[in-house]
Specification:
The complex is a heterodimer.
Chain A lengths: L2 H9 L2 H32 L10 E8 L4 H16 L4 E7 L10 E5 L9 E7 L4 H5 L3 E4 L8 E3 L9 E5 H7 L9 E5 L8 E7 L18 E4 L1 E3 L3 E8 L4 H15 L3 E2 L6 E3 H8 L1 H35 L1 H9 L4 H38 L6 H27 L11
Parallel strand pairs in A: 4-10, 6-11, 7-9
Antiparallel strand pairs in A: 1-12, 1-13, 1-14, 2-12, 3-4, 3-8, 5-9, 7-10, 8-9
Chain B lengths: L1 E11 L4 E12 L4 E5 L6 H8 L7 E6 L2 E2 L5 H11 E4 L11 H11 L4 H14 L15 H14 L4 E5 L7 H16 L3 E5 L3 H5 L3 E6 L2 E3 L5 H12 L1
Parallel strand pairs in B: 3-8, 3-9, 6-7, 7-8
Antiparallel strand pairs in B: 1-2, 1-4, 4-5, 9-10
Helix pairs in contact in B: 3-4, 3-5, 4-5, 5-6
The chains are: A alpha+beta, B alpha/beta.
InterPro entries (chain A): ABC3_permease_C (IPR003838), MacB_PCD (IPR025857), Macrolide_Exporter_MacB (IPR050250)
GO molecular function (chain A): transmembrane transporter activity
Family (chain A): Belongs to the ABC-4 integral membrane protein family.
């Protein structure tokens, strides 16, 4: 290997060498963190909600001029009409649903005498149709019974006697055994309260929020046997196979036919669950695309920098290459000289870059709720940058290897 | 050692063929010191580049140290250049980014020589040219004469069978040129075969034999008159 003389020669070209190494270092640091962010966002984008997403339609409804009793009556009429529609498998009414963006959350405890809850969880107002309407999968216990459903005012919350919770929440609050049949306490920090017995467990049900702040309790959901008498709420309609598109138009028409004293927002009022997911993760998808573009641009700039500098050096050292050829270097020796030179610059760059990547991540962790960067990203980034460098240097290095030995005798 | 017979080198363009060497014949014996002279454009440098396997030729035969080189591939030619030929260029052609030691080391590294042997050879060669104390200096820190001595050390370090010098004193003042010439004479006395291209008649006169090139053909001034006659006939033909 020619490492020593290459290093000696690089020392004489400090500016170009350091600039390219720094460019590689910065690219590595940014690309590692950007790829990590992309991976986090993408894993969110594909995270299942527990909802039968391809079959569910949501309709946001607000009653106009209705007191609690009227609202409840109209909602019941709606539900009857919806459940009787051709193409509808089931329908329910709730304060919220996964990925809606807004909802209600409470602390969950297993000991009423402690103030600090074990975790936060979202509360979904439900009835005996909700699990089927959402397409959630009941994996233990039972569904709510019709006689357990209570109509309550929007501002009053009293712990129900029965709850159905998600499997993730069940494991969280009762890590050592099944939560089925055991009590939980739903409260906002205060002690005491009434116990709610876990009568059922669903396999998965995501909370309404998709932000990073909710990542600690993303699948902690509690279904309570309440229906709200408030003016606002959402219908969750599960279509029979192949009927979703037709229902998207038919459902609002039916609802207005049933009662015109309502507002269904023109925007986001009627959404398939695919649209719900799309909108919930819009910023995550945008961020992933932006980061991807930043990575691609950075990598392209770095590759272009390497091609540019090496091409310049090849042109500058044409005579020197001829001399080396005259002294016995083969084409392969010249090719390997430039590849090794690039590898050495790249190695310097990635060592600094790896440290920068970790440092940048620590800063992001402390300022922006980022997770710690997996070292695998740094390793993959290092290998990728070194390969990029070798790929970028290949064309100018091959050009260098084609410099004929007779170049040594030509005057500049 | 170096034998070219009926060798030709033609540069072709779409419209014209230019003969740089035509029916070129030369035979340099082992241990000879041959000066090659001739006017500008006569083909001296083309002869040297072909002799040093820096360029291929168009026709004829060239035997170097008993090897017919015309059919050799690029790698084999590189190996012969590395092992059998030492080059001394007019412009020294030292690598400016490397110090004296590393410059002398270049051909030895391409030979794949072990570090200890390289070091021994480099220091021997530098001592031979009187520059062992300048091993860590860079070319730019040396005078022209010293740079040419480093180039000679680089050529000698590989113990070549043939030294090819292209105007070795062309870029030097008289005093430095004399020193370099004395060094070459000394190397020759020790048994080296040297072929030196020069247009300086005084330097040429110090060689053992003079070969004159005119219009790409050899006119050997120091051989028997019958050779001239023969060569002239060939040229006429």
């Amino acid at each position: 290997m020619q490492i020593k003389p290459i290093l000696a020669a690089l020392k004489r070209h400090k500016a170009g060498t350091v600039l390219i190494a720094l460019q590689i270092a910065l690219t590595l640091a940014i690309v590692c963190n950007a790829l990590f962010i992309i991976q986090q966002r993408v894993s969110k984008l594909v995270r299942p909600t527990g909802v039968a997403e391809s079959e569910v339609l949501t309709v946001q409804n607000s009653w106009v001029g209705a007191d609690d009793a009227t609202a409840a009556s109209r909602t019941k009429t709606d539900l009857l009409a919806l459940r009787g529609m051709p193409g509808v498998r089931d329908a329910s009414f709730s304060n919220s649903y996964p990925l809606r963006g807004g909802g209600m959350s409470l602390g969950v405890k297993t000991d009423p005498d402690v103030k600090k809850p074990i975790t936060g969880a979202t509360i979904y107002y439900s009835d005996d149709h909700s699990i089927d309407a959402l397409g959630a999968k009941l994996i233990a216990g039972r569904n709510f019974l019709p006689q357990e459903i209570r109509w309550v005012g929007s501002n009053e919350f009293d712990a129900p006697a029965q709850v159905i919770i998600s499997k993730a929440l069940a494991h969280k609050v009762y890590p050592d055994g099944s939560a089925l049949g055991k009590p939980i306490y739903l409260a906002l920090g205060e002690t005491g309260g009434k116990p709610s017995t876990v009568v059922g467990i669903v396999e998965r049900l995501q909370v309404p929020w998709s932000g990073n702040w909710a990542s600690n309790f993303v699948e902690y959901s509690v279904l309570v046997p309440y229906q709200s008498t408030g003016a606002f709420g959402s219908y969750i309609i599960r279509a029979k196979p192949g009927q979703l598109d037709a229902l998207t138009k038919a459902v609002p028409a039916l609802l207005f036919k049933t009662n015109r004293m309502r507002v269904i927002p023109a925007e986001r009022g009627v959404r398939t669950f695919a649209q719900v997911r799309d909108e919930a993760y819009k910023s995550d998808r945008g961020m992933a695309i932006l980061m991807g573009v930043v990575c691609a641009v950075l990598l392209a700039i770095t590759a272009a920098g390497i091609v540019g500098l090496t091409s310049f050096w090849v042109g500058q050292r044409r005579k020197q290459i001829g001399v080396r050829r005259a002294l016995g270097a083969t084409k392969h020796d010249i090719l390997s000289y430039f590849l090794t030179e690039n590898l050495l610059i790249g190695a310097g760059g990635v060592i600094v870059g790896a440290a920068l990547a970790i440092g940048m991540n620590l800063w992001l962790v402390s300022h922006f709720e980022m997770e710690r960067l997996s070292l695998l990203y740094v390793v993959v980034g290092v290998v990728a940058l070194l390969l990029l460098g070798q790929g970028a240097v290949l064309a100018p290095a091959m050009k260098a290897s084609r410099v004929p030995p007779v170049e040594a005798t030509r005057s500049v | 050692m170096l034998k070219m017979t009926h060798l030709s080198k033609v540069y072709r363009t779409e419209v014209v063929e230019t003969y740089a060497l035509r029916d070129f014949n030369i035979d340099v014996k082992e241990g000879e010191f041959v000066a090659v002279t001739g006017p500008s454009g006569s083909g001296k440098t083309t002869f040297l580049t072909i002799a040093g396997l820096l360029e291929t030729f168009t026709g004829g035969h060239y035997h170097l140290d008993g090897i017919e080189v015309s059919q050799l591939n690029d790698n084999a030619r590189s190996k012969i250049r590395n092992e059998k030929i030492g080059f001394i260029f007019q412009a020294f052609n030292l690598i400016p980014d490397l110090n004296v030691y590393d410059n002398v080391e270049v051909p030895l590294r391409y030979r794949g020589m072990k570090g200890a042997e390289r070091k021994q050879r480099i220091m021997d060669a530098l001592e031979r040219v009187g520059l062992a104390s300048r091993a860590k200096h860079y070319p730019a820190e040396l005078s022209g004469g010293q740079q040419q001595r480093v180039a000679i050390a680089r050529a000698l370090a590989g113990s070549p069978r043939l030294l090819l010098a292209d105007e070795p004193t062309g870029n030097l003042d008289t005093q430095m040129a004399r020193g370099v010439m004395e060094l070459l004479e000394e190397i020759h006395r020790e048994g080296a075969t040297i072929v030196m291209v020069t247009h300086d008649p005084e330097l040429a006169s110090r060689a053992q034999r003079n070969v004159h090139i005119i219009d790409g053909q050899v006119v050997d001034l120091s051989e028997e008159p019958r050779f001239h006659a023969h060569n002239a006939r060939v040229a006429d033909a």
